[in-house]
Amino acid sequence: MQCLRCKGLMIAVHMRDLSSQDDIVYGWRCLLCGETTDPGIEANRVSHCPPVRSRARVPGSPAARLGKLRA
């Protein structure tokens, strides 16, 4: 499996479920950046809204040129 953050190699790991004493959760951990995912994390990511597109001005855009003229 490939890490979504850094494109590194992910390995299967087992972790303790903090909500219960005896449960073990299986997931994935990236060897390069340490990103950890499991079914619960993936379910939460799907249920959230997508990120808002950056509102940064693109170099060369009319709004960026106008800002340079005013400065």
What does this structure look like?
By secondary structure, this protein is α+β, with helices and mostly antiparallel strands. It has a domain of 47 residues. It is 25% helix and 23% strand. It has two helices and three strands, in the order E-E-E-H-H. Strand 1 and strand 2 form a beta hairpin. The chain is elongated and about 60 Å long. The mean pLDDT is 81.
Identify the notable features of this structure and list them briefly:
single chain, 71 residues, elongated
Percent range for β-strand residues: 15-25%
Mean pLDDT: 81
Shape: elongated
Separation, N- and C-terminal Cα atoms: 49 Å
**Run of helices and strands:** EEEHH
Major sheet description:
3 strands, antiparallel
Which structural class should the secondary elements be placed in? Answer: alpha+beta
The helix tally amounts to 2
Number of strands: 3
Determine the oligomeric state from the structure. single chain
Radius of gyration: 20 Å
Q: Can you list the strand order of the major beta sheet?
A: 1-2-3
Low-pLDDT stretches: none
Can you give the helix content as a percent range? 25-40%
Question: What is shown here, in short?
Answer:
The protein is an alpha+beta fold and 71 residues long.
List the helices and strands and how they pair.
Elements lengths: L9 E7 L7 E7 L5 E2 L1 H9 L14 H9 L1
Antiparallel strand pairs: 1-2, 2-3
